[in-house]
Prior knowledge:
11 helices, DNA polymerase, domain 1, alpha/beta, single chain, 6-stranded parallel sheet, 6 strands
Amino acid sequence: MTPAAGAVEGVKAVLFDLDGTLVDSLPTIADAMAEAAQMHGLDAEPEAIIPLIGAPMQILVEELFGVSVDIANAVNEDYLRLYHSSYILTTPPHAGANELIDALDDAGLRLAIVTNKRDEGARLMTHIMGWLDRFEVVHGRDSGAPKPDPEAALAVLRKMNLAPAEAAFVGDTEFDMNCGRDAGLAVVIGIAGSRDEERLRAEGATHVVRSLEEVGTVLLGAEVMR
């Protein structure tokens, strides 16, 4: 499909964050983390956890509770067990996710996921959503440096044999914006929600939107997304 008027020229692939971007997982992640923390005598409301989601979970625990690395690792292991055994099964896709994936695929764009989830969790989530065959690469933090390190995006582009100028990055946190910007991607789209528009732009977004439908409008043009 030829890009519609107003679409971004030259972009051949779209790299997506997963949590908070394609899947509405922030509430369930926060609930699972709060439950895991309580198992170690640590208390936090899920609402206090959500703004920190995006960093590797051990770092989130260290920052939120001021605990040692050993305790943070123990909390994280319990979080992963709880999340993968139950919470992940109730996580829905974000509104418009399936439609956007279909539209980008129809337009001939290649798709990949770049997440700070562990590889196993990233592939499990993608499988539950029915998307494993839609994404050429699913890159978790076990595959290399986590976001915001630009190497997370660059490693995926090397696998796809693409240059940064041929790709767009879509995410919802400063870690995504920093990663896409510092990797030199042509387009960095921030979805406002857990972070506001001003922060996303300050951290590297070239475009800020409020829905996945608007992501499609930026990448494909308004005519395609009607």
